[in-house]
Design goal:
alpha+beta, OB fold (Dihydrolipoamide Acetyltransferase, E2P), 2 domains, five-stranded mixed beta barrel, about 20% helix
């Protein structure tokens, strides 16, 4: 044909992907997506802004030994409710400490008499807190240290965020304080540091 030229040079810069190369690329993308899902799923147990607010690596032992260092600071602890008290305004939850894993899920310690086997109190305005908390077997607690103690050694936290873990997923729940800067006034019967 006149005016038509046949190009015999290979297509530079464009390569056909072999099925093996396609499989490798697909596997890498799938692995990255799966990893990101797992990472984000774990972070979803506690919102990131609370994780950033919390004092890193805080333990109940450190909180009990040096309460003055943590006064007004936000901490992240795990626990199970062992007792509750109510007055006209507040709900007081007495919690046995449970260590948190990397996903902020509380677990029973290997040594139930170890240094982290103590307890602490969490206080919240009772009108704010959902009644479903009674179905929560374990809690992930984000709270501000009030600087007070009950029974001489048990720190008191003002609740900011709670992730409740029920015996079944139908009983899981989340609660978040509407005003994270609010610290309730502590009534009589509470010993201050």
């Amino acid at each position: 044909m006149p005016g038509t030229t046949l190009c015999t040079q290979p297509n530079r810069g464009h390569h056909l992907m072999t099925s093996y190369a396609w499989l490798q690329r697909w596997s890498a993308c799938f692995t990255m997506a799966l990893t990101m899902t797992v990472v984000l799923w774990g972070c979803a147990n506690v919102p990131r802004h609370y994780v950033r607010m919390a004092e890193p690596g805080t333990t109940l032992t450190a909180l009990t030994a040096h309460p003055e260092m943590y006064r007004g600071k936000v901490v992240l602890l795990g626990g199970t409710i062992i007792e509750e008290e109510e007055n006209e305004q507040y709900l007081w939850l007495h919690l046995t400490n449970r260590s948190l894993d990397q996903d902020y899920i509380p677990h029973r310690p290997a040594d139930m008499d170890g240094p982290e086997a103590g307890s602490y109190w969490a206080v919240v305005t009772k009108q704010q807190f959902p009644r479903e908390y009674r179905q929560w077997a374990r809690l992930t607690v984000v709270g501000r240290v009030t600087g007070t103690q009950r029974f001489e050694t048990e720190p008191v936290l003002s609740l900011l965020y709670v992730r409740g873990w029920g015996l079944s997923s139908a009983h899981h729940g989340v609660w978040e304080n509407l005003d994270p800067n609010y610290i309730p006034s502590i009534s009589g019967g509470i010993k201050k540091n």
